[in-house]
Amino acid sequence: MDSVLNGEKCSCSCEELKINVTLEEEAVLPEYKTSGSAGMDLYSYEDIDLYPLIPAVVRTGIRMSIPYGYEGQVRARSGLALEGITVVNSPGTIDSDFRGEIGVILLWITALDPIMSSYKVRKGDRIAQLVISKTARAALIPSLFLNETTRGENGYGSTGK
């Protein structure tokens, strides 16, 4: 399949998934910025001030019908992370049966500038990324034993730095 995205031609063999989206008036449709982008940008639908260490839900003004067998993953943007802004529950999950407005829980970790008392998010700002991924459902089977592995029960930090 060949498609054009922001002037770049994509000749990948990936499948293009069609997802219905509704938008509030003046909401910005999420979009991929380059042909190689895994995530599409989510935009703020409101002006909101973030205060250090206080999570806030930022509205996007969009709803979508993600098909069964897929999920939306809301992830932080690296540019905002450099400014101390992150998505608290990253990745946040949008289930295939959810039809409400997508909100992004942002957290301003710290003020890099001691004079700043709040971080201003403005309507139209890019606030997160949305990745659409396939999901699988698991059937959990109660067992008396698990198969052995070299790692065994060794966890946190056991594989080195």
What is the topological layout?
Blueprint: E1 3-5, E2 8-10, E3 20-23, E4 40-43, E5 48-50, E6 56-59, E7 62-65, E8 70-75, H1 78-81, E9 85-87, E10 92-94, E11 103-108, E12 119-121, E13 126-134
Written overview of the protein:
The chain is mainly beta and about 160 residues long. The protein has one domain: Deoxyuridine 5'-Triphosphate Nucleotidohydrolase, Chain A (Distorted Sandwich), CATH 2.70.40.10. Helices cover about 0% and strands about 35% of the residues. It contains one helix and 13 strands; from the N terminus they run ββββββββαβββββ. The strands form five sheets. Strands 4-13-8-10 form a four-stranded antiparallel β-sheet, with no helix packed on it. A three-stranded antiparallel β-sheet has the order 6-11-9, with no helix packed on it. A two-stranded antiparallel ribbon has the order 1-2. A hairpin with a 2-residue loop joins β1 and β2. The model has no long low-confidence stretch (mean pLDDT about 90).
Task: Summarize it.
With 161 residues, the protein is an all-beta fold.
Described by strand count, sense and barrel closure, the largest sheet is: 4 strands, antiparallel
CATH superfamily: Deoxyuridine triphosphatase (dUTPase)
CATH architecture: Distorted Sandwich
Quickly name the level 1 CATH class.
Mainly Beta
How large is the radius of gyration?
A: 19 Å
* Residue runs with pLDDT of under 50 for 5 or more positions: none
SS elements, strand count: 13
Approximately what portion of the residues adopt beta-strand conformation? 25-35%
First and last CA, distance: 42 Å
Mean pLDDT value: 89
**Global structural class:** mainly beta
